[in-house]
Amino acid sequence: MCTLRYRPLLPLGLLLVAALGAFGWLDAAAMPLPRLLLPAAAFLCYAAAGLSATRAGTSHGTSIALIWVIAVLARLVLLPLPPELSDDIYRYLWDGHVLTQGINPYAH
Known about the structure:
The protein is mainly alpha-helical. The chain has one domain (about 5-80). The protein has helices at about 10-25, 30-55, 60-80, 90-100. Helix 1 (about 10-25) packs antiparallel against helix 2 (about 30-55) and helix 1 runs parallel beside helix 3 (about 60-80). It is flat. The mean pLDDT is about 85.
């Protein structure tokens, strides 16, 4: 399945997904320090996995498939959570709803 040079991708990817999941589900007010350290840990896993993939070469089909699976998992973990920094998505949804009614949302 994975040769020795591709093995770091799996544990680093799983740590990345775990750090993102823990970051999303921790309460910011109750645990401010872990909420600061978890994104840093996720970034370190991401950077180490990227470095490992570039050093090993990503032409191997197994590593590319693994990268895609980890990328999808990283997004799925955070999908059910509300937006943290911006709630623009709700405005875009509302504009789309108004537009489907035949009204220009920017005309008013």
